[in-house]
Every structure is written in C-alpha cells, then in structure tokens.
Amino acid sequence: MCHVIVTCRSMLWTxxxxxxxxxxLIAFMSADxxxxxxxxxxxxxxxxxxxGSQEPYHPTLGIYGRCTRISHMQFSRRDTxxxxxxxxxxxIASGFWQATAIFLAMGIMILCTxxxxxxxxxxxxxxxxxxxxNVCGLLQGIAGLFLILGLILxxxxxxxxxxxxxxxxxxxxxxxxxxxxxWAFYTAIGGTVLTFICAVFSAQAEIAxxxxxxxxxxxxxxxxxxxx
Length: 228
Known about the structure:
The chain is of the alpha+beta class.
C-alpha cells in the first residue's frame, strides 16, 4: 500500500532540489557570464526621448552564447541580439570552456533527474530497500563535484581570442582584463553551494520520513501522513 508522507524537512529538500536544478540550468544557458568593455558612444547613439546620448552598452559573453547590440541605421535605433556564437561544440571559444560545458551539463543532468525523482518521494521512500533520499543525496554530491570542476576550469579560458575581443589585451587565464563577472557566474556558484546543502539535507529528509511518529501513523492505518 502506498503511504503519502509529507514532512516539513522532506518538502523543503524537494523544493531546494528543484530550485537548484533550475538555477544551474538557467545560468548555463545564459550569455551573462562575462560583461565586456563598454562600446564607445557614437553620433548614432541618441536617445530619441531625451535627445541626449545613451549610456555605453556592455556586450556579454557566455560559455557558448553572447549578447551584442546591432544598429538599424534606417530606423535610428539599436537592438540587442542574443544567441549562440558557436554552431557546434567544437566552435566553443576555448578548450577549457568545452570542458566546462561538459562538466556543467553532466552536473545539471543529474540535478534535473534528482529534482524529478524528488517529487515522487512523497509516495515512494525506498527502492530495493535503499532510501531514495540517501541515493539522491549521493547523486547531488556527485553533481556538485562536476559543477566545481566546471567552475574551476572556466576562468582558465579567459585567455582565448574570443574573451580577449570582449575583455581587452590584458585578459588571460584567471585574469579578467577589462571585463567583469555577470550574474550567471554568481548564480552558478550559488547553485553549487546549494547543491551540497541539498546533499546534506537529504539525510534529514530521510530521518523525518522514517521517524517514530510516521511509523505510528502508518500503524493506525493512515494513508496520508502530514507532519511538521
């Protein structure tokens, strides 16, 4: 018989697992890893509402994508264009960024799998006499290691020609030059920290769903068990 067991700790672990997976996925797909040098203003960069010059635009560069501003001279306006600069994996700007993409993708795939499984832990708490929470926690720990490897290798690619075109001639491995880090890089770091927190917290979720109170509720014949 299936017992639906919902506890405060198990629900918090499930929500954190989903949030971490989405945060890492969004960061990976974003082009806001590096914020490049400001493009100099020209006579065409005029704000039609105020008549003054617009603020200089900072192009952004991701692992495989970029955002830049293109001008439409016939309409006297400028639009931001975002998309992948690499049509295939081999065209990613640096070998280090290719390795970063591999490690991040592996970590994110594991996190998305765990997030999907975590939704069903309310009904199924074990498989083959092994706690799903403990297995998922182990997988989250492995995913966190992949994410760390990817984030360590990423700055090593700052010396590639693509990064230099955005960050200036002083950019090199682990040196930003004229660039600054974008929100996607910080989101990836924050998601990695939360990944390890989830891995540790999975043990608390397992304890909460196998506590004496839960066993008492099961013995009383209840199918829906909700505990704080």
